[in-house]
Amino acid sequence: MKFMTSKEIRDTWLHFFRDKGHSIEPSSSLIPMGDKTLLWINAGVAPLKKYFDGSEVPPRPRLTNVQKCIRTNDIDNVGKTARHHTFFEMMGNFSIGDYFKEEAIDFGFELLTSPSYFGFPVEKLYMTYYPDDVVAKNRWLSLGVKEDHLIPLESNFWEIGEGPSGPDTEIYFDRGELFDKRGPELIQNDIENERYIEIWNIVFSQYNAKPGIPRNEYKELPNKNIDTGAGLERFACVIQGTKTNFETDLFLPIIEKTEELSGIKYDGQMAFKVIADHVKTLSMAIADGAILSNEGRGYVLRRLLRRALKYGKKINLNEAFLYRLVPEVVKIMGPFYDSVHKNQAIVEKVIHIEEMKFLETLSSGEKHLDEALEKTTDVLSKEDAFKLYDTFGFPIELTVELSEEKGYQVDIEGFKALLQLQKEQSRASRTKEGSMKQQEKAFIEFREPSVFIGYENYEVSTPVIKVFDSGIVLKETPFYATMGGQVADKGTINGYEVTDVIKLPNGQYLHVVDNPFDEGEMVIAKIDLANRVKIMQNHSATHLLHKALKVVLGDHVNQQGSQVTPATLRFDFNNYETLKKEEIIEIETIVKNKINEALDVVTTEMPIAEAKKLGAMALFGEKYGDVVRVVDIASYSVELCGGTHVKNTKEIIDFSITSFESIGSGIFRIEAVTGNQLIEKVEAYLHSLIKDNVTLEEKRERLVDELKDISPKTVIELSQKAPFIGSYQDVIELRNYNEKIKEDNKQLEKILQQSKQKDALSNLEQYVTSNDKNQVVHTKDVEMQVLKQLVDAIYDKMNLDVLFLINEANDKLTFMCKSKTISANQLIKAAAKLTGGSGGGRDQFAQGGSGNFDVTELMKHIKGMMN
């Protein structure tokens, strides 16, 4: 067995199976697309399910991959054991109806034992198999595996309810008695140990499982499949001869950087392992577009970050440090996974911001927890635990961990009950939408087809095919139902108002209309075309907005929700930070330009595979059939969408962003209007001002407040289009006046800064009171942008060897040190340690800072170090 790097292990795996006729599948994103059953991609087969269930035909029936995965069901064991991870890489080979058991075992044996590949000694390998699977046992024996290395286990059968299932064979590597004196009974009795490492599992998907039927009566599948998984981290541990996975080249560079930051040597401590594992998971997930939030996968990441920070405190890492480990993750993972390399700056920024936020929460929460524990005898009450969580944002898992460290228990069941009560109260407080649960069974059983014809037809004579208590179903309908973020059409059936349209489980549209109709009755269904046009304008504008967001902010931006009504459009999206005003204006301008370019909007139905070749954007979480509807706006925006749209972007007329806000951690919302609606809105507002007979000054103030979220450029455009020129001119004049004041204030601030800079840099002799070549200088209220210039000026003019400057401002201290004899980095770090601050840099120049501290004591300490 020869030493290999993790890169060489990946390459060996992929090249071996490529040479055996397998198509190499690239690793999918960690975020599942179109699979609501998964929080993360958690196995090598997960992104290939479309091939196994027959919904797509693979490029070849033989596939291989190295898939990045996240599993978080066992977070608390990470760091405690040698091989638990939240992020890991699964190597796999798959056969969809092609080769089966004997060939799969042959491949496994050759790859593992041949000197051309991994070269494992055969005597070091043990295989388990399902007792009834004589074929698998005999195949291993025929390859030279001794019978005492083959272990039958009843647990070697893979099934998860009804569907494909079958026996499997697991391959273990024996690391020897150094790790455990006991032998193969450790495998046979499923005893946790460090000696026998499971490195590969080969599943023979052979039967169709049926609940209630004995396994020996399962029917065989017509197309038998092979599904395998081999952990890269475990292969690396065995091949590189390390004690645990954490000493391999997949983790050790992160641990070594952590040693450097903490000043503590790694000797197997759990804290180093937790940090290395969690920062890798965070980096890889954020690089794939995940965000940190309070729910779902975002909460998982937030919990990992908080857990890593908590363990950082155990090794003297009391400030934000995880973001400084990201470059090590990129060095390890970047050559194989381009997303983490490409998004390194974003990953660092997101992690750093989240660290700073949590450190503030942690400091405050620990204080409140200590106060609560002071009043506690043995068990922290459910009320106190819930208050920490709900009022102060302190995670319950940290409340439990910190309380237990101090010898207290937490009423966790009581906490869960209060949390559940809050959720129920929150649900009860929401406005209930029309509930039809009592008819759910009737809806499911109703299967008569109904056809939507409303893309081109806005009125139809058609029979009623079903009457429910809550509405009617028509054989054909021009009414679009509420779905995909688009509200339902308005209109009439035989002159009676349709108040809502709901899509039923089997695809028909239920029309909510306040009038009794009979089944078989012929009716005239007619939509409100003016209302539909406004919906189409707003829906097509959301597609342009989505693309513009990607152009300005990056491809990581994706739709997180939308609402399209006749009056407005609302678009929710993810981003790592809030938008600047300039970015919002740029996004708005891009959409306006695309409208003015009069681009054709073409809708086409096609197979989903063909749509993907065109680069059509699928929305996260949406389920698509084999045939999809593609909305193509002159190849600028291409999306899968079933909604209604304009034929040409010029029909949108205009676009204006009316508001922007954050609605959660990393989730933002834009609201906008299209068509003439902004002008109509302002005209109506101006009418109300005239009607109210307010003064010109009041009119100015109220109108400017009404338009506060609209860019000045848009206001000017409105003044050119609207009939109220005089009123708009008032707005423009006031806007111009306000802009002039802002500009004047900027100039005054600039003059003030220049004056302060001139004062600070004149009379440099005032800072140096002796002929000593090593000087410690104390200043007050000097602006940050002036400090570096001041240090350079004093150091150069006074011809000093060492200058250590301490600036006192706003109850904080800033340190800067320039030196050619003593390490400036060491002096700054010493000051930081003394004052509870932070800092660092090079030997020639370094800087840092801290909260308030006795300056006299600090100066005395630094002078002592200089001498």
From TrEMBL:
Annotated Alanyl-transfer RNA synthetases family profile domain residues: 4-684
Cited PROSITE patterns: AA_TRNA_LIGASE_II_ALA (PS50860)
Molecular function terms, GO-annotated: alanine-tRNA ligase activity; aminoacyl-tRNA deacylase activity; ATP binding; tRNA binding; zinc ion binding
EC class (word): ligase
One biological process term in Gene Ontology: alanyl-tRNA aminoacylation
Compartments where located: Cytoplasm
Coiled coil: 731-758
Reaction(s) catalysed by this chain's protein: tRNA(Ala) + L-alanine + ATP = L-alanyl-tRNA(Ala) + AMP + diphosphate
One cellular component term from this protein's GO annotations in UniProt: cytosol
Co-factor requirement: Zn(2+)
One Pfam family here: tRNA-synt_2c
PANTHER family on file: ALANINE--TRNA LIGASE, CYTOPLASMIC, ALANYL-TRNA SYNTHETASE
Entry comment, domain topic: Consists of three domains; the N-terminal catalytic domain, the editing domain and the C-terminal C-Ala domain. The editing domain removes incorrectly charged amino acids, while the C-Ala domain, along with tRNA(Ala), serves as a bridge to cooperatively bring together the editing and aminoacylation centers thus stimulating deacylation of misacylated tRNAs.
Name of the protein in question: Alanine--tRNA ligase
Species: Acholeplasma brassicae
Gene it is expressed from: alaS
